[in-house]
Design goal:
By secondary structure, this protein is an alpha+beta fold. The chain has one domain: minor pseudopilin epsh fold (3-Layer(bab) Sandwich), CATH 3.55.40. 39% of the residues lie in helices and 24% in strands. It contains 2 helices and 9 strands. The chain has a 5-stranded antiparallel β-sheet. A 4-stranded antiparallel β-sheet has the order 4-7-8-9, covered by helices on one side. The longest helix is centred in the first third of the chain and has 52 residues. It is rod-shaped, with a radius of gyration of 36 Å. The termini are far apart.
Length: 198
Amino acid sequence: MKHPLQHRRDRPTFIAHVRRHRNRSRSRLAPSGFTLVEMLVVIAIIGILAAITTVSVQGIWNARVLTAAQDEVFQATRQAQIMSARTRSTWRASFRDLNNTAQWAIHPKTAAPNQVNWYSLKPGVRIDLSETTLPRTNGVYRIEFNHRGQIPPPFGRLTLMMQNGGRLRRCIFTSTLLGTLRKAKNRSHPDQSGRYCY
């Protein structure tokens, strides 16, 4: 049997040993920061997500701008139709691309295009020349309404696109003698005439 004082002498040694062991295990478990490879992986993931988000946001923005331009053109065309019935004369809704900007005007048939007020659509909105089938004279497309607000043939479509927007399209159709107008947007497959906005 040990002497009582001997037992007390061993105790501080044991406690010191436990404390040393605990400090060693804490230092092994404590994080020492990220490695260079881990940081590069995180930065690459953030970059990829930012690129995807930017493309998505740009696409949404282009779609909203085109839809707003389509609505503006549709309302202007309706206004020309109303004016033709109200004044019992032939009116036109005219459209052109000038300095990379799509513009519209409504006016009596007797007014020359350079004598009317032209209104610009949002910057970047253009007329798609390959999909637009409205009658055209001197670079100006037109939808004409007779004194009853009806559209005499030929019928057609005005197609709008973004200058940098890829395949996005919005269009306005004239389709019957009664002056029916309708809006449409691009599809993944072409119609019978090979056009994508229908």
